[in-house]
Amino acid sequence: MPAHSFSPVAGFYDTLAHFVFGRNLQEAQAANLQSMADNIRILIIGGGTGWILQQVLQNTQNSSIVYLEASGSMLKKTEERIGQITLSNQIEYRLGTEADIKQAENFDLLITNFFLDLFSPVYLQSILNKLDDALAPDGKWLITDFVMPISGKLAHLRAMLLFKSMYLFFRLTCGISATTLPD
């Protein structure tokens, strides 16, 4: 598995995302959280600076959450963001990748927001297999990722330029292996 880390951009990641996309990324991530159940096991992988964890905590009670993040700097920002919030949920902050999901772990809900598009197709398939193995039989998987617009030449061109710029930036600064959006 290729090593990558978002630590070099952790200090300005949220500001950059907001500058480029406004609230669109946050709205996309939060769109399906209202239907979350209580008393479930949740895996959030690649959650960045923890904004999504705050939203999850507002939408579930008495759940057990594993927050798995490959960047130590991002994980630290998440812990600081959550701070001393009084929780009915149990959170385990775990530094690592999908390889650090324990063999016997099963989750009722997987959250992979803007995560799967970081990997080349070869590595992506092994990640998908690992995550699928960790999903409980009746579990749900919330995936939020970028997509290329299907209509409008100008929208398609704008998105293509933006995605190429993003992939180049994150390959150079963070070492991601992907060069384009996955199919």
CATH superfamily: Vaccinia Virus protein VP39
Number of E-type strands:
5
State the domain count: 1
Beta-strand fraction estimate: 15-25%
Q: Which spans of ≥5 residues are poorly predicted at pLDDT below 50?
A: none
Helix content: 25-40%
Helix/strand class: alpha/beta
Question: Would you list the SSEs in sequence order as H and E?
Answer: HHEHEHEEHEH
Largest sheet: 5 strands, parallel
**Widest beta sheet: strand line-up:** 3-2-1-4-5
Radius of gyration computed on alpha carbons: 16 Å
Number of helices: 6
User: Mean pLDDT score, rounded?
Assistant: 91
Using the coordinates shown, work out and report the CATH topology: Rossmann fold
CATH class descriptor = Alpha Beta
**What is the molecular shape?**
globular
> From the coordinates shown, what is the CATH architecture?
3-Layer(aba) Sandwich
Can you describe what's shown?
This protein is α/β, with parallel strands linked by helices and 183 residues long. It has one domain (7-174): Vaccinia Virus protein VP39 (Rossmann fold), CATH 3.40.50. Helix content is 39%, strand content 19%. It has helices at residues 13-21, 24-30, 51-59, 72-82, 121-134, 153-174; strands at 41-45, 64-69, 90-95, 107-113, 135-144. The chain has a five-stranded parallel sheet. It starts with 12 loop residues before the first helix and ends in a 9-residue tail after the last helix. The model has no long low-confidence stretch (mean pLDDT 91).
